[in-house]
Amino acid sequence: MSAEEPPVLQAKNLCAGYRRVPCVRDVDLDVRPGEIVVVLGPNGAGKTTTLLTLSGALPALGGEIRWRGEPTTAALHHRVRGGLGVVPEERSVISRLSVRDNLRIGPGPVERALELFPELERLLGRRAGLLSGGEQQMLSTARALAAEPAVLLADELSLGLAPKIVARLMRALREAADRGAGVLLVEQHARQALAVADRACVLRRGRVVWSGPAEEATRDIRRIEGAYLGGAAAA
Ligand SMILES: Nc1ncnc2c1ncn2[C@@H]1O[C@H](COP(=O)(O)OP(=O)(O)OP(=O)(O)O)[C@@H](O)[C@H]1O
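Above: the input record for the complex with adenosine-5'-triphosphate. Below: its predicted structure, written as tokens.
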């Protein structure tokens, strides 16, 4: 099981921020094969900054990131080639290209993306900019998962989407984890993410203020919301 396997991606005392000013401090996080770790926290807590730094899109200001046990400062495209998948906060589809072409320029085979999200088949010829928000998010997620990444980093997959489509996306992440991927999911809305997650951690003002099994977070959700999330996790 995942708890016995070494982490694929690890942050140790990670400090991160912008123009050398840290807004994330001393964060320890790890993602093992086959598990979903959800990072919760209110607006501005540092969730996206943490994820961008783990992906290599932002340089770390302190501490260390390890990939398969080795310290890394590699840029994003190197990490993607090495098995990292990213679904960024801004849906990453290219609006003027068709769904098919968006899948073609992704890191994995189009056929695999369609196996994972058969819903996209009937949309292949459509311009991605004409898709609904949920369809765009399925396209982004399908593209990242088609490469069967060792670790997937996903930022606010559920933003602005109906619960049914959020459940669909969460199911796809759970299935990827069950195939052996590690998943780090940043979410402001906790409950649906916790339902598929193995572990959770809560960031507040750039620091980890709670971490533990997702089951415990679910059981304790009212207290966690009240203490750390300002009610933001209610969805
Ligand atoms: N490009 C940027 N330049 C400077 N400061 C930034 C930048 N992006 C974010 N910040 C600041 O960094 C801090 C952490 O922001 P971050 O986006 O990581 O939080 P978050 O937890 O992801 O919040 P949200 O849920 O609103 O996306 C905030 O104070 C934010 O204002």
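Notes for the reader.
Residues 2-92+151-234 form a domain with the Rossmann fold fold (CATH 3.40.50.300).
Strands lie at 9-18, 21-31, 36-40, 62-67, 70-71, 84-87, 151-155, 182-187, 199-204, 207-213.
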